[in-house]
Recover the amino acids of this structure.
């Protein structure tokens, strides 16, 4: 699944650091995740003999939706209907399920709109304007470096965002750093903070083949669902929506994927890739594999635990497959050499240019510092919803007393509404799961830092990870939304007075957590921002302006076509059909037929195209992106990449990297024959 | 723990391949795991001003014991008493435990010798002769290559071993390949197949600090135990034993470690190290981490499961720490370059020598083949005692019908008695644990080979790993030693007639298992043997004859001294004391005091040296090795390396690589004040 591998529940939060994006040059016509204000019209005309005009681009952009849960989507009706992937609504289905009513396994088909249900924490956003604010941000930075650079930059960003969106109820402003800091763009969004689940198939229909088939093709997956945006209790009528076309997709036809790729590292310097290969990925894969094992066994204990842990396990397994694929790509000597050679070629082209200097050495120095700071930064933020809430409550109380310009990112006036929604929306807590993840993360902190490390001692005191996690999870009341609300509204005083053990723990870690952020800014993020500017200059000087920035979970468009690939000498056809599901089914999980497929087998038109692959260049975060044809109509929703797409974080391999799409055709057939939903089918057809 | 990271229960058995040993040159006086027939007397004299004479070496060699479970040991009394590590007897303690009588947690102190209990599967072996058989083996090989080479070699080895040891009840012959095939030596052992547990402390005393402190120092571990060899129901009087000296060890004094290091890869070519870094270690670490998570959660379910899984978890965590440390060492650019440079230097020295040719390319070609075969070979042998028994029974039945020269290794006349003992010794089965490991290994096979792979389909048919593992483990009767005995004795007819699902499964996999072995021999092991011969020639030509062979789980002696090291600028002293345990204890697992320590706190002499470190060069398999002073007396038992020793698989780093030893002094104090065992103390003191 191409959802962002940044996990919910703060699992890896300590490990996230702003990716210093560099300047990819598109090496192939289909490579590139382009911003809408720099669509490569000439390049596309050359390759495809045609390119969309500005009106086409404007209309598509206005219908594209970003889901704050980490996915992409699109409006597909004039009544706020949103097409996305099933795996993008799975956290919502999980949160709305109970032991007696499992929306994951059964799916969700409300009899009428009034039964559509709100998804906790979810928000839909549509870009309405993009403007360049590079000048004011760079002026604010001036000659500053290190932590001072980051502070001045973030203060200016907070001011620009606040000034741009006085209506924080309906709009959101976000300054996006492109090319690692060479450009800053203000994205203005129309936001919809009441998003409800409108339709979901059975989980098994979406995840048929489970983890074994994830990131593989041929595929038989109905990874599609519908949400609906509401405002003032009514479905919204969005300014634009895409026409839904359930026609069969055609081999070779042009396809656009419009969505929000989360992050890429296409032109990391060798020092940055070496860090991923030697430190970040091995640690992440090893620890997540253990978590996977813990989850699998815990879930096998009872059917109820199996239900409660399902979405978390899917998320962990998906992330793990992404990271394993990335490491494998970096451990491939041919792939590594290709990227290394490109880095060396750029360096050679600008050698001796005094305006560029040696940003490669600056990056290497920053990455040496990051090797020191990585494990502490990762460890200081234990996993789980409960700790995440506690940390946010503690931080929000302190940050809100400061002027807007001095707050941490996430707590500025422009960012606070979404942060608040994330903490206060009612959402069930699964204590055994929170405890399992807290225990796991504390135990891994001790393992990687060492039992005698000062941060280990700060985290554990004399307790064991097992005892501490049990004490905190059994003692906290933060699972109650009213308790969180009282602490949010009570601010610093309420936080200081709280005896809730999870709040006490978050207070206890806060100073060191902030100190590590500061040190990362001083020694890693600040220097990388400066170096990225120079590397951008180098790249523009060497290759001209036709380059796309690394992904930043903001709106991009990618160009491609429907096409299979050749795997070990054998062609992989670009389509599967609904009927193929019955052939592939074994009767054993995860290859067991979804019950509705079995029940409706005779009615299903087995010739309908189910899933297909395209050459579009996408990555995690693109999940749910509409796949749009030349006419601007939706012929599917992107939900995955093939196995070769996993190295796509570092480089696009045109001959084998593929996007996997669920066809509008099969979703339409599902709405008719498998999960009959006539009202929805009519709405999509534009009929009243 | 420096036991061999080759796990019990066949966990990684498919991954084992004969390491093509090369020709290390000792770069430092303390580097080297020397064979007894090539002790570096001159080198030691130069570094230490003294070296032991032949009588000293002969006496020490005659008292050194190999434990077939994968450890080392020594005779320390004239009544067959054997000193080894607690973690070397832990599988025995686990097998002899019941829910009402947990010998792991309580330890084992029999009131008299008659209460000593036999350890399933364990055998003690003492080298009595070493002779060179390189000539006959090489003659048998002739000009053969690939699978034919391996076949001819193994046939000749089987013949030599059979001729050398007609008394298979009391002797065992084993031809050992040194330097990857440049030399073949016949080791003749006096064997003792009735080995009983004589004394063990509480598990917590041995594993104080648990996994966090494993491979670390300062250390507070009583990782010592005693076995006793029996014959005809009576304790044996061995031809030689070492004097036990509980005196305090002295900083700087010379120490010898005599034991059986399992395997090293000190002078792999770069292609071989790259395979470890890029393929073997990432796959092994990732999958073992998941197993660790599965075990941890399964064990936390009930105290009984916690007891039943303890030794397996310890083994998995120990192996994992070894592999993570190895990968980290290979991912260290400085360490990698040092080894790479050494490889390049040798290549340069012999460039153009027609007698050498280009073995580096031959190795690279073999490793490319191994990259193809590694995952299938690993996957074709699912994990667990039950499957291991089934596989051995199926193979033994077929192999025993063949002439000795045509059998697979492990089934020749010289090897059969130990194979038979391993299968037939009564040993409890823990069905949930076998099922967990079988399910895990089948699930990882599917993950790494892919759901559509032919081997995956052979393994699973249409079943899921979960369903298949449950069916096999619940249906098999192989847990009953009598059933195994009947199948062993019934031979091919009984195997063919068996409906036991585990036997049926092993029969089903057997042809492909053999085919993969053959292909490995043809494309990997055969070519590596030829190349290793050439690399050996190259190394001798470049550096002369003073080199030690890579480890082969045969008897070696290493030279060193008691010395700490400097860690991040701070000196680490070489000793800890018994009293330090009380300071380090937190009250929480795994830093909780062993009950007997708490109960006897007032009596314990806290100034006694507990553990210490030396510069000796050891590796997994050396666990339990006697640490011997200049006088030839035992001053401790090696039980671990420090964290820097983990890269020692590839290269010895003299400044930081240390052996961790439990002092005879602290064992003696334990026998007096903590676990009073006056008879044993008297026996060790040589008093009646």
């Amino acid at each position: 699944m191409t959802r962002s591998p940044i996990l919910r529940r703060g699992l890896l939060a300590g490990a996230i650091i702003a990716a210093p994006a560099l300047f990819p040059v598109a090496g192939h016509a289909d490579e590139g995740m382009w911003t809408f204000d720099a669509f490569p019209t000439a390049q596309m005309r050359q390759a495809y003999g045609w390119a969309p005009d500005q009106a086409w681009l404007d209309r598509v952009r206005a219908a594209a939706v970003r889901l704050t849960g980490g996915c992409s989507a699109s409006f597909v009706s004039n009544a706020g209907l949103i097409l996305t992937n099933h795996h993008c609504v799975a956290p919502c289905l999980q949160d709305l399920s109970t032991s007696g009513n499992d929306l994951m396994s059964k799916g969700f088909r409300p009899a009428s709109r009034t039964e559509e249900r709100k998804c906790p924490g979810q928000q839909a956003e549509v870009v309405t304007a993009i403007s360049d604010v590079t000048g004011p941000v760079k002026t604010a930075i001036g000659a500053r470096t290190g932590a001072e650079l980051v502070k001045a930059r973030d203060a200016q960003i907070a001011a620009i965002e606040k000034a741009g969106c006085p209506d924080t109820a309906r709009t959101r402003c976000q300054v996006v750093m492109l090319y690692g800091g060479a450009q800053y763009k203000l994205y203005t969004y129309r936001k919809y903070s009441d998003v409800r689940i409108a339709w979901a198939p059975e989980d098994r229909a979406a995840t048929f083949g489970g983890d074994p088939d994830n990131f593989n093709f041929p595929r038989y997956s109905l990874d599609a669902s519908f949400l609906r945006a509401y405002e003032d209790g009514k479905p919204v009528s969005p300014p634009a929506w895409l026409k839904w076309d359930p026609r069969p997709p055609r081999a070779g036809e042009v396809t656009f994927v419009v969505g929000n790729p989360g992050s890429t590292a296409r032109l990391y310097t060798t020092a940055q890739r070496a860090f991923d290969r030697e430190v970040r990925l091995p640690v992440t894969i090893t620890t997540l594999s253990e978590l996977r094992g813990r989850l699998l066994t815990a879930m096998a204990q009872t059917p109820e635990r199996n239900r409660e842990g399902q979405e978390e396990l899917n998320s962990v397994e998906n992330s793990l497959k992404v990271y394993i694929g990335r490491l494998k790509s970096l451990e491939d000597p041919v792939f590594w050499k290709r990227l290394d050679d490109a880095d060396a070629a750029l360096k050679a082209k600008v050698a001796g240019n005094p305006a560029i200097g040696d940003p490669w050495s600056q990056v290497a120095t920053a990455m040496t510092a990051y090797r020191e700071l990585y494990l502490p930064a990762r460890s200081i933020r234990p996993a789980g919803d409960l700790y995440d809430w506690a940390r946010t409550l503690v931080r929000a109380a302190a940050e809100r007393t400061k002027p807007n310009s001095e707050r941490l990112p996430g707590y500025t006036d422009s960012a606070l509404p979404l942060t608040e929604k994330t903490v206060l929306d009612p959402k069930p807590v699964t204590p055994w799961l929170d405890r399992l993840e807290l225990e796991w993360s504390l135990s891994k902190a001790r393992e990687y830092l060492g039992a005698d490390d000062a941060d280990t001692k700060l985290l554990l005191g004399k307790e064991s990870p097992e005892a501490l996690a049990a004490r905190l999870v059994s003692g906290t009341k933060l699972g109650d939304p009213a308790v969180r609300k009282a602490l949010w509204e009570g601010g610093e005083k309420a936080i200081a007075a709280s005896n809730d053990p999870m709040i006490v723990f978050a207070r206890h870690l806060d100073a060191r957590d902030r100190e590590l952020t500061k040190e990362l800014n001083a020694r890693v993020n600040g220097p990388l921002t400066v170096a990225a500017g120079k590397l951008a200059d180098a790249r523009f000087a060497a290759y001209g302006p036709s380059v796309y920035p690394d992904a930043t979970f903001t709106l991009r468009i990618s160009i491609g076509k429907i096409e299979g690939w050749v795997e070990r000498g054998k062609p992989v056809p670009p389509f599967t059909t609904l009927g193929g599901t019955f052939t592939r089914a074994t009767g054993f999980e995860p290859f067991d037929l979804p019950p509705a497929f079995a029940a409706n087998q005779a009615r299903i038109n087995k010739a309908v195209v189910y899933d297909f692959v395209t050459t579009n260049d996408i990555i995690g975060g693109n999940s749910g992106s509409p796949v749009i044809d030349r006419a601007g109509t939706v012929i599917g929703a992107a939900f995955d990449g093939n196995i070769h797409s996993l190295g796509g974080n570092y480089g696009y391999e045109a001959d084998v990297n593929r996007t996997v799409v669920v066809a509008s055709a099969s979703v339409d057939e599902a709405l008719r024959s498998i999960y009959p939903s006539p009202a929805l089918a009519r709405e999509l057809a534009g009929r009243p």
Summary: Confidence is low (pLDDT under 50) at residues 6-26 of chain B.
